[in-house]
Amino acid sequence: MLFPEQTADLLARCNFPPAGSALDCAVSGGVDSLTLMALAVAHGCEVTAFHVDHRLREESGLEPAIVAEAAAQIGAKFVALRVDCPKGPNLEARARALRYGVLPPNVATGHTADDQVETMLLNLLRGAGRDGLSAMTHDYRHPILALRRADTEAFAAALGVEIVHDRSNEDLAFLRNRVRHELLPLLNEIAARDLVPVLYRQGELMHDESVLLDELASALDPTDVHQLQAAPIPLVRRALRWWIREHTPSGYSPDSGATERVIRVIRGEVVACETAGGLRIRRSKGRLILESPINQDQPQKRVTDDD
Q1: For domain 7-111+140-169, is the CATH number 3.40.50.620?
Q2: What CA–CA distance (Å, rounded) separates 221 from 146?
Q3: For residue 45, which of 62, 21, 68 has the smallest C-alpha distance?
Q4: Class of residue 247 by CB neighbours under 10 A (exposed 0-12, middle 13-18, buried 19+)
Q5: Is residue 154 predicted with pLDDT exceeding 70?
Q6: pTM of the predicted protein model
Q7: 213 pLDDT exceeds 90?
Q8: Other beta carbons within 10 Å of 262
Q9: pLDDT digits (tens, 9 = 90+) for 124-133
Q10: How far apart are CA 113 and CA 121, in angstroms?
């Protein structure tokens, strides 16, 4: 395939694995994922495009064939997948979980700088801390993260393949769409500038700082009360979040309120507290002991670094 003239310029801003590497790509058929697939092929990767039909729209059953044809024209292999995602609350989150449940591990996605900034704003609205405001890593899983949506729109149009237009991306019932179509344009108007590069850079800086904080927090034993009392509170919070998340069935980190309750236990202000998922943390003989709801009526187990 003859790739558009801007291909070399875009590739210089991407982060693909070495030419000849196998690369699995999530391809919905929209402009971002088509750009991901085409640039990966142009770079010399052995690309397999994975398309997931969530069966949420009547026309979605026709889209695998469209993506398969685009993959064939571009020079990628194609795999069609299907999941059932009934409509209801938290539709975006449920669809995402189902999608990643069937996609290959470490699949590459077509997230752009605009997506990154939208996610940062969404997380800010939800009360996220530094981690939620940090940028995704610009690695092989997010190889086109430094590109703008305008780049992918122009590139996909120049490819000459059919593009899938997901009308749900215009539905303002979804919070991300309101951020994309209403909030971010308003912020740009107020600031009298394009804020995506500014916020994207801030996300990168916060990511670097988060990595450093994680390295420092990893030196703490999250069950050693005396060590935690002597450590800076920001590191204590991070150590506690990692520790609690490892023992939470959902895999989610505790919210700030739960973390502060544990800190009160560390200080000796309360004997015990509950965190995410009904987990109970108490203090005994200078150690924090984590108890699951199932085992609260059984002999207690001390959680150590080896558990």
Answers
A1: yes
A2: 37
A3: 21
A4: middle
A5: yes
A6: 0.83
A7: yes
A8: 28
A9: 998 888 888 8
A10: 13
Question: Rg of the chain over CA atoms, in angstroms?
Answer: 23
Angle (deg, nearest 10), helices 31-43 and 149-159: 70
Domain span(s) for CATH 3.30.465 in the chain? 218-295
When pLDDT is cut at 50, 70 and 90, the band that residue 251 belongs to is low
Which pLDDT score is estimated for 168? 85
Architecture of domain 218-295: 2-Layer Sandwich (3.30)
93-151 per-position pLDDT tens digit:
888 889 999 999 999 999 999 999 999 999 999 888 888 888 788 889 999 999 999 99
